[in-house]
Amino acid sequence: MAPRKIIIDTDPGQDDAVAILLALASPEDIDLLGITAVAGNVPLELTAKNARIVCELAGKPETRVFAGCDKPMKRKLVTAEHVHGKTGLDGPQMQDPTMPLQDQHGVDFIIETLRSEPSGAVTICPIGPLTNIATAFERAPDIIPRIQEIVLMGGAYFEVGNITPAAEFNIYVDPEAAKIVFGSGVPLTVMPLDVTHKALTTKPRVDAFRAMHSKVGDHVAAWTDFFERFDMEKYGSEGAPLHDPCTIAYLIEPQLFKGRHINVEIETQSDLTLGMTVADWWRITDRPKNAMFMNDIDAAGFYALLAGRLARL
Ligand code: RIB
Ligand code: CA
Predict the structure, then answer these.
(1) Exposed, middle or buried: residue 203 (CB in 10 Å: 0-12, 13-18, 19+)?
(2) Bridge partners of 34?
(3) Per-residue DSSP letters for 13-51?
(4) Residues noted as catalytic
(5) C-alpha span between 101 and 155 (Å, rounded)
(6) What is the predicted pLDDT for the residue at 156?
(7) With bands split at pLDDT 50, 70 and 90, how would you rate the model's confidence at 63?
(8) Packing angle, helices 245-252 and 299-310, rounded to 10
(9) Does pLDDT of 198 surpass 90?
(10) Ligand 1 in contact with 13 (CB < 6 A)?
(11) Best of 47, 79, 169, 196 to mutate for ligand 1, by most ligand atoms within 8 A of CB?
(12) How far is it, in rounded angstroms, from Cα 81 to Cα 102?
């Protein structure tokens, strides 16, 4: 089967970095058309820089990286340095990138790519706030029916929120953008905290990255060591959830995941529950089923895939 043509929309972040590495390590499955950076974990200037740092770490400086939106559609930017550190990639010492940032705006790249590629041939993988995607939809609604699938990391239902009691970070930062994407009619596969919290970086799994004795393995281990302290403190878990790589792993081995096709709506009015993904898991309403909402993962299989692919870099 031909590799899936994808665009990764991202706010690196250590877990975003692992997702990008997994995609770049899997050319037989993934044809990465480009990476669009968005403001999220850290401001846009840093997410655009971090995306290039990761591409160079993977030995793929020819990857096209574009800067997208520097703030949410209607709100002030909320960042997450408390989780990812000041740089967004805290953990190992990192060199500044030498590869260039593309001149074109990330939103224009998304629009142009969807218009020039055959209809139904491009999958979009948002792993940060949905600002770039929703802005592209507002600017060029003609691209919406041309998208093969959106596979995104975001939201939560039984796991509830990680940035407020009700909301997951990616959705919370730009709830208006999320409402546009979830209401677009594009086939959606969602990796919420309900599934990512079952993909923890336990010590044996991080040791497997170190055992690669490679720059990539050492960086991934150092990133997870830094990144996991937040979740271990907060949840008392035995590691950090590797949220974003779940999207790429799904494209490579979808059988690793289980979920339900249900209705998911986004709260944009209430201060108390802003950004909540209201998932009709028990199908109580007759609201349209708009999302494949994942809630289970073969975590051992996920980490075996990750280790096997990252060892290639
Ligand atoms: O809530 C987890 C999500 O927020 C992940 O994408 C992480 O990188 C942060 O962006
Ligand atoms: Ca992210």
Answers:
(1) exposed
(2) 7
(3) -HHHHHHHHHHHT-TTTEEEEEEEE-SSSS-HHHHHHHH
(4) 243
(5) 30
(6) 98
(7) very high
(8) 90
(9) yes
(10) yes
(11) 169
(12) 26
